[in-house]
Design brief:
The protein is mainly beta and 504 residues long. The protein has six helices and 23 strands.
Length: 504
Amino acid sequence: MKKFLILIVVGSFFPTLQAQETTPEDALRYAVENLTGSARFRGMGGAFGAIGGDLSAINQNPAGSIFFVNNFATFTGSSYNTKNTSRYFGTTRNNNDNSFDLNQAGVVFVFKDNNPKNDWKKITLALNYENNNNFDNNIYSAGINPYNSIDKYFLRFANGLPQEGGITLQTLENGFFENLNFIDQQAYLGYQAYMFNPVSNTPQNTTYVTNVPTNSNYYQDNYTLSTGYDGKFTANFATAYKDKLFLGINLNYHFTDIVKTTSVFESYNTIDTTTGLQSVQFDTETHTFGNGFSFNLGAIAKATESLRVGLAYQSPTWYRLVDEQRQAIFVNCPDCSTNNPINFNPGVTMIYQPYTIQTPGKWTGSVVYLFGKRALLSADVSTKDYSNTKFRPQNDYTGLNSFMSNALHDAIEVRLGGEYKYKEFSFRAGYRFDESPYKVDQTFGDLTGYSGGLGYTFGDSRIDLAYSYEHRNFNHTFLSSGLTDPARVSRYNNNVTVSYSMNF
């Protein structure tokens, strides 16, 4: 009978040198931008690169703050509704998530110089907070997998890759979870769950075979819950030269905090319900937090009184992140242990060494045509080379960085927006297309979005309302390796945003 350990180090912290398995999606959640910001900005699809005059517009082009006439402040709240439709081996499941967030707050100060001999007539200073990403979301997938079991995940670590070698039986029998690196921990969990057996019962054995029924269709379900945010605080400076050329710069401080919980369940269609493995549930909770830095440069020029063009550069964002992880496994195996069902919960939070993610930079070209003070049409086109996404230290992520360099590409984003004013009312509409970061977009598809909005002006203040819709398809795998048969998920975002703005 193999040893079954119950660790009671609840709440203890044990560092380890080797981080958990990392995937491209861990970087893309920061690299792929969502449409956020004020209601006016979102109502026009974020096509503000040459318009300015909105605190969220400085994210597209920092020169945009120069178009404020007076000191100005905006506060924004948003309601988020996310629907995920997951399809896994012919079975469809739906999940909805609703949340509310005070996602934007900012202020701009306007300083004018009336000296006719000074060509630099105006400067603006702005401070703005925005929630770049709301990570509140849940996905539920279920179906019968005729090919692969969860055992492949644990066997991948137990037997190792050719360059790694397998884990010794001595380690699995006598090791303590908190003292092992990540690879050994995953093999250890699988061993405690009776997912595999050693080929030889010698201490130095490093080869293992599955204990899972091989003639079974595997019922599997997965529940993934995430909560958290990626926020950004921006300090902006802009100036105007002869009311023809407008220049701006942003310095951005990023901060993020995400908790992701996954639960993978598998059961076996066996005739004998009194012996052998009946089911297994594998739970993982990962807490990721940290901060980052980026900057923006931008210019807007008046081609005519009605036509403006803009060009902006967004630098990479350099994030420094830390991961904390807890894991547990639960098994129903009547003849494996006297303590059935088996609940193996080490009660240990592993704290991994910090690492860095570098997101790609972005170039944006913009144009807007003004129909007097009554209406406008605007277009932004951005390019972002996702193949420049990097994990660091470089030596620890050579394979992953090489994969992203080859699999990702230079993607295009298009934003279109329009606004029409009638007395105190403003009517807005927008469109957004965001190309997949992947050369082959099956893994993470293109995004299409539509938006509309309404504004009403009360003299020195204004209230704005916007509705935005977005859709994207992507593959969702239950585990990072081994069991990688993907569920195909269609995500639909329906968001309502309200902003209050005022001159002061």
